Amino acid sequence: MSTLDLCEECGTPRIITTEYLWLTNGDIAQKRDQRSRIILTECENLDPLFQNIQEIIGMPIEHIILDCIRRTYLAYCRLFLPDNMPELRKNPDFNVRAIGDGFIKLATPMGVGKFKFVDMRYEGDENDFYTVSITEPYSLIMCVACHCGAMEALFGQDQGVRYSEVSPGVYHITSFPQEHAKELKGRMKMMLYTPAEGAIDLERCGTCGGPLKLSDNKWYLDRGVIMNKTANRRLVIMGPNQFDPIFKELEMELGETIPEVVVEAQRRFTRTGFFAIDEYGNKEEFRDGLAMRGLGNLTELDIKRTGLKMTLDNAVLPLMIVGMMQGIFDVALDIDSHVEWELSEEGKLEIEVTPT
Question: What is the CATH number of domain 46-182?
Answer without folding.
Answer: 3.30.1380
